[in-house]
Design goal:
mainly alpha, three-stranded antiparallel sheet
Length: 141
């Protein structure tokens, strides 16, 4: 078995774009647990931990609650478990729950796209007003 490289929380924060505080919070609420601790007690993370944090980070803009995140991560963990992978009806039930989250994510993405379109239209309106205003002569004082 090859030994995994461990990273301290600062490197993980830099790689994920998450703050140290946020990473610690996710640990406190049980979303991600450091794979190890150094002799001095510092949190140590693996590449798999970074990938898990990136999944959490990607859920955030879609307004998934901590409980939904926890449930979704549990589903994916259970489906990916190499030694204890569920079979039969349990596997199908987990896949149905995963698909349900996918549908929610798709719907929320569509909502975000619509909001972005409205925001871009608003920004364009402001730009047009600035351009119109710059063409007018200003009164002299």
């Amino acid at each position: 078995m090859t030994e995994q490289r461990h990273m301290q929380i600062g490197e993980v924060a830099e790689r994920t774009g998450l703050s140290l505080r946020t990473i610690r919070h996710y640990e406190e609420v049980g979303l991600v647990i450091p794979s190890a601790r150094s002799k001095g007690g510092f949190r140590l993370y693996t590449e798999a931990d970074v990938e898990r944090l990136m999944v959490i980070r990607r859920m955030k803009p879609l307004d998934f609650s901590l409980e939904e995140m926890r449930d979704l991560l549990d589903i994916t963990d259970r489906l990916a478990a190499p030694d204890e992978a569920p079979a039969g009806e349990e596997r199908e039930r987990l896949r149905e729950r995963l698909d349900s989250y996918r549908k929610v994510a798709d719907a929320r993405c569509e909502t975000l796209r619509a909001r972005l379109t409205m925001a871009e239209d608003f920004a364009a309106t402001l730009q047009r007003r600035l351009e119109t205003d710059s063409g007018r002569k200003r009164p002299q004082r």
